[in-house]
Amino acid sequence: QTADLAESPQTNDKQVPINYPELVQQSRDAFNSGKTRPLEWRIKQIKQLMRMLTENSSEIVAALASDLHRCKFETFALEIDYTIQEIKYMLMNIKEWSATEKPPKSLANFFDGVEIRKDPYGVVLVMGAWNYPVQLNLLPMMGAIAAGNCVIVKPSEIATATAKYLYETIPKYLDTDCCRVIMGGVSETTELLKQRFDYIFYTGSSTIGKIVRKAANEFLTPVTLELGGKSPVYIDNTVDMAMAAKRILWGKCVNVGQTCIAPDYMLCTPEVQSKFIEEAKKILQEWYGDNPRENPDLARIITDKHYQRLVNYINDKTKIAIGGDVNPAEKFISPTILTDVKSTDSIMQEEIFGPILPIINVNNAYEAINFINSREKPLALYIFSKDKETLSLIINNTSSGSVVANDVILHAAVETLPFGGVGYSGMGAYHGKFTFDTFTHKKGCLIRNYNKVAEILAKSRFPPYSDENLKILRRLLERRPSLP
Ligand code: NAD
Predict the structure, then answer these.
(1) For the whole model, what pTM was predicted?
(2) Are the C-beta atoms of 400 and 422 separated by less than 8 Å?
(3) Contact 371/360 with Cβ under 8 angstroms?
(4) Three-state DSSP class for 444?
(5) Which residue minimizes the CA distance to atom 14 of ligand 1?
């Protein structure tokens, strides 16, 4: 049982050390028992996960309010409802996605079975980040189960209340032999990563992503790394500014910017910048009033360390065009826009992950492309323009995990799109079918038989070799591609 093995560093009265090798071995034994393979078992677990979310929604809202001072609306929209939608989509499609595929075959395999079987990997480790701690743990967990794996989930210790909720609640709903949750911080995770897993799915920073990949390499364990980075916005003078500014600011203010795909910084001309600031003042006033700190819709920064890091970005008051109110006791930072920002400023050196939007001036889309391409590949790239050529120009000449034109963040809710990074923003992707595929090994199976006719055709491969047999073999294997 999970509860006997795990410990909580947050409620650490009686430290029961986790026996990591034993923990993983128990999961491996459970996987080897074959329990996770039947589709019925998988569907039952996934439905239980959905039940857990619906029956415990008020506990989840309370946990997020405790961790991030997050409001009910955002917790429902971006965690509970969002995860339930993905679960429903999985349930609608799991039968089809898990079915054996029969790809087209050549003449040489006319009498054979050519199949792609969907195999689970075995024991999967999921490590989620703290900023959306429900969906970032439960979606990969659901995917691992859907594909027939055993799974061990390690939520981030930083979102303390949500981690505790997951640790205490998941065993009440899911099969505890196959689906385990453990708690722990850096030292526990370091020990955990010394174990051999069959797949690791990590969400978090690029720095820790490297540690995870290095650990996985020890056993050649495949990984998905859902990382972060600076997601740029380019905006030109063709847009409907009232609409565009609302969309960009929502992306920066939701969860107070602690979103991996939050618009990080903005590139535009000085003229567009003036129009944007003018609109932004109106919008932020309309949303949060004169005293944003009193407004219930704004969350707080997760830790003092992150708060201090963010406050340091806004020390230079001359660059603050809007906002800049802070409160250390509450870890509150009001939505803030900085102008006249230089690419060498400290705020442009790392992912912001807070409600501060720096604007950098460029003269045109070409300069924006050069700016973006001179930095690490972003997780998301946002382009605001009514001009289709500008959209194509930027999409075709940059590399990013995803692109959204004329909005932000919403691509994460399109379940038919892969969600993931490229380069320093990550490797691999999930959501929708990509979640199922991530945790599935596609096993190529060639099923031959003892058909006599087939053997006459294929015997040309056997010695004694001859030019005549080579000709027959070539004809059998010949492909007729339509060349471009
Ligand atoms: P993090 O990397 O600090 O922590 C995530 C996990 O790593 C936690 O489980 C933590 O215990 C563990 N960890 C921390 N230090 C470790 C160490 N030294 N050795 C081993 N494990 C360690 O990330 P974070 O601060 O929790 O999350 C913020 C980052 O995650 C941002 O960069 C954000 O963009 C990114 N993110 C990405 C996505 C995505 O889907 N691509 C989603 C959310 C967040």
Answers:
(1) 0.94
(2) yes
(3) yes
(4) strand
(5) 186
Q: Is the distance from the beta carbon of residue 226 to the nearest atom of ligand 1 less than 6 Å?
A: yes
Integer angstrom CA distances of residue 131 from 65, 68, 161, 258, 334: 12, 8, 12, 6, 18
Instruction: Match 């196959």 to its residue by tokens.
Output: 178
134 lines ligand 1 (CB under 6 A): no
Instruction: Ligand 1 pocket test: pick from 183, 189, 306 the residue with the most ligand atoms within 8 Å of its Cβ.
Output: 189
Beta carbon of 210 within 6 Å of any ligand 1 atom: no
Ligand 1 neighbour 228 (Cβ under 6 A):
yes
Residue with the smallest CA separation from ligand 1 atom 9 is 156
Using the atom order of ligand 1, give the atom closest to the CA of residue 158: 26
pLDDT per residue, tens digit, the chain (484 aa), is: 333 333 444 334 445 688 999 999 999 999 999 999 999 999 999 999 999 999 999 999 999 999 999 999 999 999 999 999 999 999 999 999 999 999 998 878 888 999 999 999 999 999 999 999 999 999 999 999 999 999 999 999 999 999 999 999 999 999 999 999 999 999 999 999 999 999 999 999 999 999 999 999 999 999 999 999 999 999 999 999 999 999 999 999 999 999 999 999 999 999 999 999 999 999 999 999 999 999 999 999 999 999 999 999 999 999 999 999 999 999 999 999 999 999 999 999 999 999 999 999 999 999 999 999 999 999 999 999 999 999 999 999 999 999 999 999 999 999 999 999 999 999 999 999 999 999 999 999 999 999 888 888 778 899 999 999 999 888 877 776 666 6
* Ligand 1 pocket test target in 8, 203, 254, 435 with most atoms within 8 Å of CB: 203
How far apart are the C-alpha atoms of 429 and 421, rounded to whole Å? 7
Strand partners, 338: 320, 358
Decide whether any atom of ligand 1 lies within 6 Å of the 260 Cβ: yes
DSSP three-state, residue 289: coil
Residues 6 or more apart whose CB falls under 8 angstroms from that of 207 comprise: none
- At residue 303, the 3 state secondary structure works out as coil
| Any ligand 1 atom below 6 A from CB of 185 | yes
By most ligand atoms within 8 Å of CB, the mutation choice from 205, 305, 422 for ligand 1 is 205
CB of 211 shorter than 6 A to ligand 1 = yes
User: Would you name the residues annotated as active-site residues?
Assistant: 226, 260
Strands 402-405 and 336-338: unpaired
